[in-house]
Amino acid sequence: MAVKPPLSELPIKTAENGFYRGFSVNVTVISKIIISLLVVWCIVWPTQAGRILGDWNAAILAQFAAWYIWVVTAFVIVCIGLAIWPTGGRLKLGVEGEKPEFSNFSWFSMMFGAGIGVGMLTWAVAEPVAHFKNNPSVIQGITTALDADNVRTAYVWSYLHWGLGAWACYAIAGLSLAFFSYRRGLPLTIRSSLTPLFGKALSGNLGHVIDIVAVVATILGVAQTLGFGVEQFVAGLTRIGIGGLAHTDGSATTLGIIVALVVIMGASTLSALSGVGKGIKWLSNINMVLSIFLLGFFIIFGATFFGASAFFVGIWDYLVALPWLSFNVYASDGVEGSESFLLAQWQGWWPVFYWAWWIAFAPFVGLFLARISRGRTIREFVLGAMIVPSLMCFVWFAWAGGTAIDLELNGNANGVILDAANGDKIFAMTEFMLAPIAQALAWGMAVVIVVLLMTFLVTSADSAVLIVNTINAAGDEGPKARPHIVFWGAALALVVGGLLISGGTGAIQTAMVIGALPFSIVMALMCIALIKAIWNDGRREAAGVATTIDPETSTMPAE
């Protein structure tokens, strides 16, 4: 049987004139309607929205917990397999001879900043502390809450949630998009990654549905990140002396939410209007420099040796436990308060929630990674998008979180960090460390953290706006009409604000878990399609059939 060249054309109908010129009307309008209805529902009928979303969330966590855990495990296996597969690992995400657009420093900075950087300022301290207080080993009586014997277990779970699994979700999405766009010349949009399975049928309604699912998942995934970020941003503003933005328990007031969103989304919309090569690139470089400064402070002046132990021993414990953790699903006996019930509940609160979050975030981060990774090999992409960011997260957890645990473990902090809200923990810790020396130093560090948090939030938000518009514009990476950038910036702000006001971060979490489910199926199909494409490219190369587009014509070379 003759080996055929790969599909290199996937026409997607876009408007030729009018307000939606250059955009897929089906994808753009339906996505806008879905998001607008969600905003109106949550703001006008918050109680009903909270109850119904909560019921759906409970059902999904009960029925699909195993699916989330196992599908993320599959993403890790596929990524590692592609990197070490001789045929696949050497393939370039582009045509032969093409060089990467960005330096390694800018590449890592943008990848980390847009992908997960904002989460570090909340969870690098909050998560190890949370698992230090409670985790499955504590529930089972194997270790003791808030005791030294629970530190290593706390780090296993922290590394699991922010390690290879998280970045494998992003890598699969980014790799699929870059492969089919830059090697095949297909549109840089989600549907293109499934062409080995569905072919030209993706030009029609099937492709529209896939892209709509990706847009909704992106908005909800980014809303989750911004929701946590807004709460922490308000906590930081309160710490530096701006009052009236937070309740006595540390949660943001309605005024605080509005102020934070106006500042963050206003800046992100302006940055999005300037494009990836300007605003996002410079913001990413700035927040990487500030991150290094803050992290250096924890390494030098925090629990230096405790952090080193948490880093190296923690990685060893994580890798040893990873095979079991990747497949284990706790089954509840349905008896509230029983050990099996508590284990299943904890798994829903933590691993399942995280896997849903990373999957919902994947179309955004994946498409962004694809845009900044053209010219790199699959092996280079996987190692750069999985190993390096994971290690960066581990460094943050080891020294920032390790300093917090050490201060509480030796009794010096006396609950100051433990009792603070999650978003406020890093501020509480730095103030505890610096205030006895000079209150001005504590205030100055709070300002640094607030600025760093804002740059991370702006980077994530403006990247999301550009990515959503790229999907809506049938993969066109060129300039977008300003009204559409402004619309999605406002829509993202309203989704975050509406869900926060109606039900706090729990409401955003619920909506995000629901929105991630259909896209998890799309991502599973991406894995199959990518493996099939690389396998067939090996056969094509052996038969002398072209596997990449001609850079001069953007089409497959004539046979």
From TrEMBL:
For this UniProt record, the keywords arranged alphabetically read as follows:
Cell membrane, Membrane, Transmembrane, Transmembrane helix, Transport
Query: Mind telling me which residue stretches traverse the membrane in this protein?
Result: 23-47, 67-85, 105-126, 159-180, 201-223, 255-276, 288-316, 352-369, 381-399, 440-473, 485-505, 511-531
Question: Where in or outside the cell is it found?
Answer: Cell membrane
An example Gene Ontology CC term for this record = plasma membrane
**Keyword Cell membrane (UniProt):** yes
Citing just one GO molecular function, the answer is:
transmembrane transporter activity
Q: Per UniProt, what is the membrane topology?
A: Multi-pass membrane protein
- UniProt main location, coarse: membrane
Q: Which InterPro entries match?
A: BCCT_transptr (IPR000060)
Return the Pfam families for the record.
BCCT
Q: Which PANTHER family match?
A: HIGH-AFFINITY CHOLINE TRANSPORT PROTEIN, HIGH-AFFINITY CHOLINE TRANSPORT PROTEIN-RELATED
Concerning its family, UniProt says: Belongs to the BCCT transporter (TC 2.A.15) family.
Give the protein's recorded name.
Glycine betaine transporter OpuD
Source organism: Ruegeria meonggei
